[in-house]
Amino acid sequence: MPFQLRILAIVIAVLFAGYIFFLVRRSRSDVLRQRKWIFLSLVMILGSVFSDWGWDVAKFLGFTTYSTFTIYIIIVIILLFIFRMELSLIVAEKQVKELIQEVSILKEKVAEERKETHGRTKD
Description:
- This protein is mainly alpha-helical.
- The protein has one domain (about 5-90).
- About 90% of the residues lie in helices and about 0% in strands.
- Helix 1 (about 5-25) packs antiparallel against helix 2 and helix 2 (about 30-50) packs across helix 3 (about 50-60).
C-alpha cells in the first residue's frame, strides 16, 4: 500500500474511532451498544498500519488481490453485525409480545373490577 494511502487510511480510522468515543462521551450512546463499531475502528487502524500483514494473509488464503480480501472481510463483518442485530430484534419482538399479553390481561382485570365496583354501589 502506498505511503500516502496508508496515512489516509489511518486518519480515517482514527477519526471514525474518535467520533464513536465522542458519541459515548456526550451520552448519546453507551459503550455496550458501540462495541462493534469500536472493534471495527480498531480493525481499520490495524489494517491500515499493518497492511503488509494483510497482503501475506490474503496470499496465504488464496486471494489474488488485497482489495478482494479486504472486501471479503468487510462483507463477513457486516454479516456478523446483521446477525447480531437480528437476534436483538427477535428478543425485542418477544418482549413486546409478552408486554402486549400482560397489558391485555391487566385491562381485563381492571374492567372486571370496575363492573364489580359499579355493581356494589348500585345495590
